[in-house]
Design goal:
By secondary structure, the chain is of the alpha/beta class. The chain is 39% helix and 22% strand. The chain is built from 15 helices and 19 strands. The longest helix has 31 residues.
Length: 446
């Protein structure tokens, strides 16, 4: 146990609430502030992408005894279901021996996490706008408007868990020697909905991540516990096959009939959902340092917002907490060292998962429909099954292991160079699982 401190967390999202539980277990007084209403009292907004929990996220929950509580509200997903335009359906299994990620509704999970944090003793303050922080004194400034009167709220430590457009980071950015970059993707997304059957069952396979890959755009669907699916349409904002083109009902219906014909029966409210739900943006945000002395630190998206194509935004944020907690256990009350080691450890891994996530859009939207790519994945799985000590596919490294993201990225790049050579072997389609191919990979690994 540490010496008790009075700690504020700005942001009641998934990372902020889980961090609150960890800090309460250490004996601290924890106050969580959020400018939005209590999510438990509002209808979810129609701008969500379902979350997937993988090993890194489960590890953080396991360490605090919450894994089984959260598994109850998730659905295991052990494969991709690739819906090709001509109507064919391909399945690609993720790992081995039934390894699975878990589909979770963001709204359901966030409500649950707030309940758990309150049960642990954290206090929540909703509809409270934090506009600024004094880095030297860990004092928050709260008020109704940015230009109006502010109240001072004094703390021993402040954590910024307030997302990609963090007010806490905004103050840190005004220091000298603070690096910051923000990049908006040319892609946006829109939430759609597949309702449950009348008996509450799912209309399509609930244990698959459904992808309709169409080159520079794609549709994706993940199951919810109530029998429905949250669907997400990812498209460029402008140009051919973009959101700017889908301005009226006739164009939209014709577009879906052409590119996603097998969704006609399962997305009955396409037109209503499409024009009601907002078109949302995707941004990659990087910064450094993440901490100021022993007073203020960033965590989760406020330190490293990424795009959702690897399903690791939440997992990376939860892993921040795992690493932070390891340094708390190691360095006790020395918050200066805790924060210094935490940011040094996490920064290269946050940059690596940002890069992996960016690349994975191309894999999901284009390569999953490419025969050559599918053969490459088949060879990798075959070789990995024969030589698990020599080869673990990149996806498994990222999703089913706790290997640092930066190592997974470096090894993945090395393995990809090997596979590029393997795919050049004459008649690889016929001899993909031959001794020749096996020996070639072994020699290239050496």
């Amino acid at each position: 146990m540490q010496t008790p401190k009075k700690i504020a967390i700005v942001g009641s999202g998934l990372v902020g609430t889980l961090l609150a539980i960890y800090l309460k277990k250490q004996g601290h007084t924890v106050h969580v502030f959020d400018r939005s209403p209590d999510i438990r009292t509002v209808e979810f907004s129609g701008r969500s992408i379902n979350l997937v929990m993988s090993n890194r996220g489960w590890k953080t929950l396991q360490d605090i005894g919450l894994e089984h509580e959260i598994k109850k509200i998730g659905i295991p997903v052990d494969k991709r279901a690739i819906h090709l335009q001509e109507g064919k359906l391909n399945y690609q299994y993720y790992g081995k021996d039934g390894e699975a990620i878990f589909s979770l509704s963001r709204g359901v999970l966030n409500r649950k996490m707030i309940d758990l944090a309150e049960n642990a003793g954290a206090e929540f303050f909703f509809n409270r706008k934090i506009w600024d922080v004094s880095l030297a004194t860990a004092t928050l400034y709260e008020g109704e408007t940015e230009q109006g009167e502010w109240t001072e709220l004094k703390y021993d430590l402040v954590f910024g868990a307030d997302g990609a457009f963090s007010r806490i980071r905004h103050r840190m950015q005004r220091q000298s020697m603070f690096d910051y970059s923000q990049e908006f993707m040319k892609l946006g997304y829109k939430e759609l909905h597949i309702p449950a059957n009348t008996d509450g069952t799912h209309k399509i396979d609930k244990n698959s991540l459904h992808i309709w890959p169409r080159g520079n755009f794609m549709l994706m669907a993940l199951a919810n516990l109530d029998g429905s699916f949250t669907c997400t349409l990812f498209m460029p904002f402008e140009g051919e096959n973009s959101f700017e083109q889908l301005k009226d009902e006739a164009t939209l219906v014709s577009f879906f009939a052409n590119y996603f014909p097998d969704t006609k029966e399962v997305i009955p409210d396409l037109v209503k959902d499409f024009f009601k739900n907002p078109t949302s943006y995707l941004a990659i945000m990087k910064c450094y340092p993440w901490a100021y002395q022993d007073k203020v630190a960033l965590i989760g998206d406020s330190a490293h917002a990424i795009v959702p194509f690897y399903g690791h935004g939440m997992n990376a944020g939860f892993e921040d907490i795992t690493i932070l907690n390891e340094f708390i256990l190691k360095f006790g009350d020395d918050w200066n060292t805790i924060f210094a080691e935490y940011q040094k450890s996490r920064k290269p891994n946050a940059d690596a998962i940002a890069e992996l996530s960016r690349r994975n859009f191309v894999e999901m939207s284009s390569k999953t429909a490419d025969e050559k790519f599918l053969l490459q994945k088949k060879i990798e799985k075959w070789f990995s099954d024969k030589h698990p000590d020599k080869w673990m596919p990149l996806y498994s490294r990222v999703t089913f292991s706790l290997q640092p993201y930066s190592e997974a990225l470096a090894i993945g790049d090395f393995q990809n160079k090997i596979m590029e050579e393997v795919m050049q072997i004459e008649n690889i389609e016929q001899k993909w699982n031959s001794n020749e191919v096996e020996q070639k990979i072994i020699s290239l690994l050496a």
